[in-house]
């Protein structure tokens, strides 16, 4: 790729930490090793059309989904995912890009799909259970990435092919149809980042069975990368050109993950 090439990264700017993501992407321009980066706030389909990659930031997933519906963005983003274009969901964005989500409002959480995982909303606890932990992320180098977890979703399970999963119809669980590729095949799930078990917060008061005690409750094939003892330790997953992280990388000064996503976009241009 030419060193003069510009990558335009759209950040969904409806609710949540979109300003911080934009700042992190723009700060990459000070690094000579990266291509020129343009960060664009996306609120309408015509803005999305200008982008090479898209970020769905942390915030409140139901509010973001409602804003997308009002802004006529749901169908364009579904089409974006189905076409295999680069997309990254952080925290609330991870929930929206999951195939199944639990712990949402009655009637379920509207999802976009894209990654074959089941997540639990606020699975690590409420705001008072927020924490920071070092994330082992081999693709970023030996130094752990500082993960900021705020009402963070938990990976309940890695899911097998969509046609083989029996999904409960109640309890706030939705399945998105955006996963289904035309030929019926799905890219493998790649476990990119995880935290140590002893770094996980204590169970919320009164919780009889914390969700992060579940271990490999459903098979998922194929899975690339090391799989920790508990699926809830998994905090970064990639499937094709869809990336999800349960933490907020935009709230640190570490831009390695933003640079990683820009490189994902470069590979598709």
Automatic annotation (TrEMBL):
Q: Which PANTHER family match?
A: PYRIDOXAL 5'-PHOSPHATE SYNTHASE SUBUNIT SNO, PYRIDOXAL 5'-PHOSPHATE SYNTHASE SUBUNIT SNO1-RELATED
**In which domain of life is the source organism classified?**
Eukaryota
Q: Which UniProt keywords apply?
A: Glutamine amidotransferase, Hydrolase, Lyase
Fetch the Pfam families from UniProt. Answer: SNO
Catalytic reaction annotation: L-glutamine + H2O = L-glutamate + NH4(+)
UniProt entry tagged with the keyword S-adenosyl-L-methionine: no
Entry's family note: Belongs to the glutaminase PdxT/SNO family.
Query: Sorted alphabetically, which CDD domains does this protein's record hold?
Result: GATase1_PB
Task: Write the protein's name.
Answer: glutaminase
Which GO MF terms does the UniProt record name? glutaminase activity; lyase activity
Q: Which InterPro entries match?
A: Class_I_gatase-like (IPR029062), PdxT/SNO (IPR002161), PdxT/SNO_CS (IPR021196)
Q: Does the keyword section mention Hydrolase?
A: yes
Record GO biological process: pyridoxal phosphate biosynthetic process; pyridoxine metabolic process
Q: What is its EC number?
A: 3.5.1.2
- EC class of this enzyme? hydrolase
Any one GO cellular component localisation term in the record: glutaminase complex
Q: What is the species of this protein?
A: Malassezia cuniculi
